[in-house]
Structure formats: structure tokens, C-alpha cells
Design brief:
Layout lengths: L1 H31 L13 E6 L2 E23 L5 E6 L6 E2 L4 E5 L2 H29 L5 H26 L2 E3 L4 E3 L9 E2 L6 E16 L11 E6 L2 E13 L9 E9 L10 E17 L4 E3 L2 E8 L2 E6 L1 E6 L2 E6 L7 E4 L10 E3 L1 H8 L1
Parallel strand pairs: 1-20
Antiparallel strand pairs: 1-19, 2-9, 2-13, 3-5, 3-8, 4-7, 5-6, 7-9, 9-12, 10-11, 10-13, 11-12, 13-18, 14-15, 15-16, 17-18
Helix pairs in contact: 2-3
Length: 362
């Protein structure tokens, strides 16, 4: 029994000492507080960096991919069958409109033209002679009409012979660049054989397919910039040439064709292209990305007024490098927290660190 009493007394003593220690510690802490006069006044304000929205030029743009093609391209084919007597071009040559490219054997056609021209000369002489006699009433009108008809037929025969002779020559229909050519003198060409393709590369055309919702925003004359894997460090600029007049039912999209000048002939048909179409240009406010906070479908920032943080809902727009356009919610003279907002709540006191804010915007 006495042993149990001793144990209980020991426990009570330990508890008493513990209580005494806690009480002493609280007293010491109380003395270190401002009320005890031992420590200077502290601040609960959160240090933050701030910046004002910046005015930036915004380009409302739209991206798409497409394929380049020459502004003009035509397959060159002979108008008549025949054997090749002369090839004046090679693959990749640059030619001018009207240049003779390939000549077919035209001996028979030349002979036919000479014969037609001789007949024309005879019928013209007969027609002129009988017409003079008719004026002096010494030739029947029927004979005059007969010689006139013969003359007209001879004229038609000459025109036909000349056309047949021209068909033996393949000429360039416009200034351009010759494609691949595998024809040699002595080859026989059928009338429907494709000899080569002539490309007009003075400009190229890019075709884009864009979603229906942009139909009303696209119009001829808008600026298009383009890049292609063939020249990864180069950017090419052109303009919208035409917009399709209807929406494709299967894809709910519409076609746009843009023209890009190509004076150095660097761009060729078939190249893959990434295009950017500028729909509109306007001025707007932008803030650093670091200031923007998103919670679900809500986007907001903290603004500072009279050293107090206020949660401010915004409507963000386009990204501009390290900045984001703000369409609604901010004014140009607002001060937006760009650093130190991690532990902020609406209405918290803040202390502005000017250096911190300056560093964050650089």
C-alpha cells in the first residue's frame, strides 16, 4: 500500500514541475512580444512584386498547313504525231514565251503549205482578172463568183497548211521553267504524249483549308506569312488572293488561296508549308504570364490598391511571347502582382518590393 502511495506522489511531482515549466515559458514569450516592450513592432504584410499592364500591338491570326503549287503549270504535248528532229531545251531550263522547245519532222507540211500558197496565187490572179472583166460587162457574173469561191478555198487551204506546220513545233506558252525532260532527237511522239511540264515560278500559290467559323473574317488582301521545311530559317510573305464562295459539307471548312511572290525561284510546287494568316491588328493591354492564376474555369490576378491585394477576375486573350493579352478586367494604371502571390488572399496587406517587380518584368 505504501509503495502505491509513493508512486502516486512521484507522478504528481512530475506533473507539477511540467506545469511550472510551461508557465515559465509562456511568461518569457509574453515578455518578448510588443506588449512586453522587448521586441520592435513586426509586420504581417506580404512582400510582392508588381507591374502595370503594357500596351502591345496584337495580331489576331490563324494558322494552317498547305501545299505550294506554281502559279501556272501546263503539260506540254505535241498537237500532232511525229518524229523529233530537234530538242532545244534541257531539264530545268528557263524559257520565254514563244521560244521553240521541240521540233518535229515538218517536211510534208512545208511542202503542203508551198502547194497551197501556189494555188492561192493562181486563184487570186483569176479572181482579180474576172472581177475587172465584170466591171466592163465582158464577163458573166457566174464566172466571177466561181473564181471568187476558188480564191476563198485557196485562202482556207493556206491557213490549214500553216496550222499543220505550226503543229509540228512545240513552243513555250509563257515564261517559265522546264520540268524533267527525257526526249531525244529521233524519238517518235504520239499526239497525246506529255513531253514535259512548264512551270511559272514567278509566284507560288498556297492552298489552305480553314474551319467554317472563320469564313466571315477572311478576305482577299490579308497578309499571309509562310515557312517551309526546305528553308527553316526563312519566312515568306504574301496575300490572300481568293476565298472560296462556299463551305465544304463533308469537312465544314472552306478553301483559301494565297499568292506569294517568288522572284528568286526558291519555292517550287509540292512543298509543304506552314502558313499564318493575319485576320486583324489592334492595340491591347498585356501582362506577364507569371501574374495569371487559373482555378478551374476562372482566371484572375491580384491587383494592389492602398497596399491591399484584391483578387481581380480577367479575360485573357492571345499569348505574346512572355506576355498575355488581357481583354477585360484591367486598366492601364492598375498594379498587378507578378511575384509573391503564392500565399495571398483577397484583402491581404502587401508590401511592394520595387526591385523584385522590376527584375520579374525584365
Amino acid at each position: 500500500m505504501s509503495k502505491l502511495i509513493k508512486i502516486l506522489l512521484g507522478i504528481c511531482l512530475v506533473a507539477a514541475f511540467a506545469f511550472g515549466g510551461i508557465w515559465s515559458a509562456r511568461q518569457l514569450t509574453a515578455q518578448d512580444t510588443p506588449d512586453g516592450g522587448e521586441q520592435g513592432g513586426g509586420s504581417d504584410a506580404t512582400q510582392v512584386g508588381v507591374a502595370s499592364p503594357l500596351e502591345r500591338r496584337i495580331e489576331d491570326d490563324l494558322s494552317g498547313v498547305g501545299t505550294l503549287r506554281a502559279i501556272r503549270a501546263v503539260d506540254l504535248m505535241p498537237a500532232a504525231s511525229g518524229r523529233v528532229t530537234e530538242v532545244r531545251i534541257s531539264s530545268g531550263d528557263t524559257v520565254s514565251e514563244g521560244d521553240i522547245l521541240i521540233q518535229l519532222d515538218d517536211r510534208a507540211e512545208r511542202a503542203a503549205l508551198n502547194d497551197a500558197e501556189a494555188t492561192l496565187a493562181e486563184t487570186r490572179s483569176d479572181f482579180q482578172r474576172f472581177e475587172e472583166l465584170s466591171e466592163s460587162n465582158t464577163a458573166a457574173e457566174a464566172r466571177v463568183e466561181e473564181t471568187r469561191a476558188a480564191f476563198r478555198r485557196a485562202e482556207a487551204a493556206v491557213s490549214s497548211a500553216r496550222a499543220a506546220l505550226e503543229d509540228r513545233t512545240i513552243t513555250a506558252p509563257f515564261d517559265g521553267t522546264v520540268g524533267l525532260l527525257d526526249i531525244e532527237p529521233g524519238s517518235f511522239l504520239a499526239q497525246d504524249a506529255i513531253v514535259t511540264t512548264l512551270f511559272d515560278l514567278s509566284a507560288v500559290e498556297i492552298r489552305l483549308s480553314l474551319p467554317e467559323r472563320y469564313f466571315d473574317q477572311v478576305e482577299a488582301g490579308q497578309t499571309v506569312t509562310m515557312t517551309t521545311p526546305a528553308y527553316p530559317d526563312a519566312t515568306f510573305e504574301g496575300t490572300v488572293a481568293v476565298r472560296a464562295s462556299q463551305i465544304e459539307l463533308a469537312t465544314r471548312s472552306f478553301d483559301v488561296r494565297a499568292r506569294i511572290d517568288n522572284p528568286e525561284r526558291r519555292l517550287v510546287g509540292g512543298m509543304f508549308a506552314n502558313a499564318r494568316l493575319v485576320l486583324d491588328t489592334y492595340d491591347a493591354l498585356a501582362i506577364p504570364d507569371d501574374a495569371i492564376i487559373s482555378e478551374g474555369l476562372t482566371t484572375f490576378v491580384y491587383t494592389v490598391t492602398d497596399d491591399t491585394a484584391a483578387r481581380t477576375k480577367i479575360t485573357p486573350g492571345r499569348s505574346i511571347g512572355a506576355l498575355t493579352e488581357v481583354r477585360e478586367g484591367l486598366a492601364e494604371d492598375d498594379r498587378v502582382v507578378i511575384a509573391g502571390w503564392d500565399d495571398l488572399s483577397d484583402g491581404d496587406a502587401v508590401e511592394i518590393d520595387e526591385d523584385y517587380g522590376q527584375e520579374a518584368t525584365n
